Amino acid sequence: MTSTHSGYSASPATGADFPSVLVLGCGWLGMALARSLVQAGHRVIGTTTTPENLPAMVEAGIEAHLMRLGSDFGPAADELLHRLLRQADVLVLNVPPRAAAAGAYPTLLRPVHRAVASAGTRHVLFVSSTSVYPNEPRLMRENDAVSTRDAASDVLRAEGHFVPRYGQWKSTVVRLGGLFGPDRSPGRFLAGRHGLEQGNAPVNLVHLTDVVGVLASIIRNGLWGHTLNVCAAQHPRRRDFYPAAAEFLKLESPVFKDEPEHFVSGKIIDSSQVRSLLSYQFQHDDVVAALEFC
């Protein structure tokens, strides 16, 4: 990310029992999480790559800074990152892989890893993706993809950099299913397309409300040292779900190729572990019913 160290500040919401949080990446998900944490009483520091987002962040009570990782990341940006990390009890690392060139995601995050190691960061919540799992027709649990620094997957390698080898900090990796919610309705994802494959494959989606709820619960309960799948419990077939989602928006329905009913392709993400470890109750396990909340 190029980083500029200009920042807007708002009066932080603080509380003795609420850890301060740095949300690195206040985009669609990060902004929703930051707002929720402020409302709950946390001091929240946030970064964005978009100057136009700064006033809205300040209005929401977030201490806002402009920061962009990448080839232009220099000493001033590094100093800012260290300073922000020293003010936070928890780092939420929410920089999506699409922000990096192919094969460069771990490199993009390397300055953050170095800063975490040298700034004395206590806790890291790494927002990852269920795309790390092979697309095989079976249930995928957390141990079906292992995060190491030399993994074949860019995302798994990036995860591995933030799982401490020597206990310098505590981390939890959260692998999210496909995100949907306000301003991101799945009815638009495939509308009007024809000849689509994998119609019998299950969908693995999760609503923004539930992602924010899980992340906030992890921070509130200090649930560190885990890798957790976060996904809705219901997994309708693509050929059933996406036409229903398009119809909900009154868009042209997508058309899937014919497949034998017994032919199933595609993984199913198992989210039972996060449900057993957190008291959070998912609001949108029925992804068809959740279309109303997009």
Walkthrough of the structure:
α1 links the parallel β2 and β3 (44-48). With 294 residues, the protein is of the alpha/beta class. An eight-stranded mixed beta sheet has the order 1-4-3-2-5-6-8-11. The chain is built from eight helices and twelve strands. It has one domain: Rossmann fold (3-Layer(aba) Sandwich). The chain has helices spanning 28-40, 54-59, 75-86, 105-119, 154-161, 208-221, 238-248, 272-277; strands spanning 7-8, 21-24, 44-48, 63-66, 90-93, 123-129, 139-140, 170-176, 178-180, 205-207, 227-230, 268-269. α1 (28-40) crosses α6 and α4 (105-119) runs parallel beside α5.
Task: Name the descriptors.
Rossmann fold, 8 helices, disordered N terminus
Strand order of the largest sheet: 1-4-3-2-5-6-8-11
Identify the CATH architecture.
Answer: 3-Layer(aba) Sandwich
User: Radius of gyration, rounded?
Assistant: 20 Å
The ordered string of helix (H) and strand (E) elements is EEHEHEHEHEEHEEEHEHEH
Q: What is the beta-strand fraction? A: 15-25%
Class computed from helices, strands and strand pairing = alpha/beta
Helix content: 25-40%
How many E strands? 12
Query: Any idea what the shape is?
Result: globular
Q: Which stretches of 5+ consecutive residues score pLDDT under 50?
A: 1-16
Indicate the multimeric state.
Answer: single chain
Biggest sheet layout: 8 strands, mixed
- Straight-line N-to-C gap: 30 Å
CATH class: Alpha Beta
Average pLDDT, rounded to a whole number, is 92
